[in-house]
Design goal:
single chain; alpha/beta; TIM Barrel; six-stranded parallel β-sheet; 7 helices; 11 strands; 31% helix; 25% strand
């Protein structure tokens, strides 16, 4: 059913109207005769589809945790119509070829499905080819290790500067896992020196709020020096 009318639906603001939809896009608001198919939306409300720029579909390598089908079902159930998947799969999406292969597997998606490209300290030359891959959104820059980071750790300021310069030169969105790797390592060492066996209960001591604020301050300085204005940050929830 590529073209149909959705009738009696409540919009944001409480107005009730009919909508003409063709190939998934609203092309007309208000009653218009001649639609081949009609769906009665009485009792239902229509909202904008949400965008989630930080999801983990774990394909390839970790599909026992999440895959394309399960993540789409969850998105649709929650009213999300566009998702952007992270690059820390196995292997990580740090080459244009891997990115293209991943996007190819997403062509039959039921929602808009896009992808981050993973930065490493040495894959700068891959960016130009990655830019041409449909579904490419921007670059993920991990300032600290996290789940399945692999070779995506970029904790040296010189490498961060290189990526910020590249992002500015190519007008590319840069998203950052903002934690200070050196501080995390130091926190772990201090606990071990106290004879403490590290576990989940020490997560917020190891990855304390200061590890985030220090990382944000550092990458902001680097990004501003590069003339980069499109930077987003990933924050962890912390218990205090």
């Amino acid at each position: 059913m590529n073209q149909f009318e959705l009738t009696n639906v409540r919009l944001y603001g409480q107005a009730i109207c009919s909508l003409g939809i063709k190939h998934g896009q609203i092309i007309h608001i208000g009653d218009r005769p001649g639609w081949l198919h009609s769906i009665n939306g009485q009792g239902h409300s229509l909202f904008y589809g949400r965008i989630d720029p930080h999801v983990h579909d774990r394909d390839p390598g970790f599909t026992h945790k999440e895959d394309k089908e399960s993540i789409q079902a969850a998105a649709i159930a929650g009213g999300t119509t566009t998702i952007v998947a992270q690059a820390n799969t196995n292997p990580c999406l740090t080459t244009a070829d891997r990115l293209a292969e991943k996007v190819k597997r997403l062509q039959s998606s039921r929602i808009t499905y896009q992808q981050w490209f993973g930065a490493t300290p040495s894959n700068y030359r891959e960016l130009k080819s990655a830019l041409a891959v449909p579904g490419f959104v921007g670059v993920k820059l991990c300032l600290a290790t996290t789940t399945a980071t692999g070779d995506m750790l970029v904790d040296k300021e010189a490498d961060q500067t290189q990526w910020c310069n590249l992002a500015a030169d190519h007008d590319v969105l840069l998203t950052v896992h903002a934690e200070n790797e050196a501080r995390i390592t130091r926190n772990q060492l201090q606990l071990r020196q106290q004879g403490i066996r590290l576990g989940l209960q020490h997560h917020c001591t190891i990855r304390d709020p200061e590890s985030e604020t220090e990382a944000v301050a550092q990458i902001l300085d680097v990004a501003l020096a590069a003339g980069l204005t499109s930077v987003t940050y990933q924050f962890r929830s912390q218990s205090r």
